[in-house]
Amino acid sequence: MVSKSTSGGRATMPDPRPSGPKGLHNTSGVVQDRPDGAAQARPQAKPQPRVRQKVAKPEGPLKRQAQRKAMNEGELDLDVDGDAALDLGVGAGTTPTASQQRRAAHKLALEAGILAAARELFAERGAEALTLREVGAAVGYSHATLYSFFHDKGELLARLAEDSLRTLLTRLQGAADGAASGGEAAAVARAFVNWGLQHPHDYRLLMLDTPAALRESLIAGLDGLIAPAALPAARAAALWAGLHGLVMLEQGGLAALGGVAARARRIEALLAGLLDVR
């Protein structure tokens, strides 16, 4: 759109297309420029504080070790089903909620299932072939889940060794209780050899790869079972060495000839020399 100027030339008229702050040109005369500070007059949205979400961290091996140590020293108050207050995530003397009790029961059940699966695989394949991945697959969990219960394979084997030691000492104590007076040590010796041959992987884990934390308990438990025989220390050590040799020779197939009868004769010969059993 153009118009004639007074000088005879042509003058360009302002473009009426919207270009101003309100959608119209400043020179159109329809609206005025917005006053200074008009933009700041609008209420600003109040910034909201950032809310940090708390995520529960899985229990690590150090926390579990502290819990077991406290339980052994009697520092925790036991609650329903024998669970410790610390295991339920509450302070000592505080009654856990129903939800906390369910979580603790689920955790204990899962740990028991893991140990049962590991025990079955261990009895079948031994310590070297046992893997956390196979144990996790057996209970329907990834092997990463097992690390919330056990720091590594060594800690899992240590738990299995604890169970093996408990089973062995119970078996030997039963043999001693059922023996005639004066024959407790001989009964324990026979039961020791039989158990070692029946549970070769457990025997090797206890006698060859004994976890450091169990060595004192193993030695004290075995010596306590033959204490009624009042053997001198050197003769008691020779007795256990001889019994261990018999088990290892037969496990290796070097003394398996003759079957059960030959085994019984070898045990009797050892007892006759060390316990004066005739």
Question: How would you describe the overall organization of this protein?
Answer:
- By secondary structure, the protein is mainly alpha-helical.
- The chain contains eleven helices and two strands.
- The protein has helices at 38-41, 61-72, 98-125, 132-139, 143-146, 153-177, 184-198, 200-207, 212-225, 233-251, 259-274, and strands spanning 2-4, 10-12.
- It has a two-stranded antiparallel ribbon with strand order 1-2.
- Strand 1 and strand 2 (10-12) form a beta hairpin.
- It is elongated and about 135 Å long.
- The N and C termini lie far apart (135 Å).
- Residues 73-88 have low confidence and may be disordered.
What's the helix and strand layout?
Elements lengths: L1 E3 L5 E3 L25 H4 L19 H12 L25 H28 L6 H8 L3 H4 L6 H25 L6 H15 L1 H8 L4 H14 L7 H19 L7 H16 L4
Antiparallel strand pairs: 1-2
Helix pairs in contact: 3-4, 6-7, 6-8, 6-9, 7-8, 7-10, 10-11
Q: SS-based structural class?
A: mainly alpha
Order of helices and strands: EEHHHHHHHHHHH
Largest sheet: 2 strands, antiparallel
Q: Could you tell me the radius of gyration in angstroms?
A: 40 Å
- Strand arrangement in the largest pleated sheet: 1-2
For the secondary structure, the number of strands is 2
| Overall geometry | elongated
Secondary structure tally, helices: 11
What is the percent of helical residues? 55-70%
Spatial separation of the terminal alpha carbons: 135 Å
Percent strand? under 5%
**Average pLDDT, all residues:** 76
Q: Which labels suit this protein?
A:
mainly alpha; two-stranded antiparallel ribbon; 278 residues; elongated; 2 strands; 11 helices; 2% strand
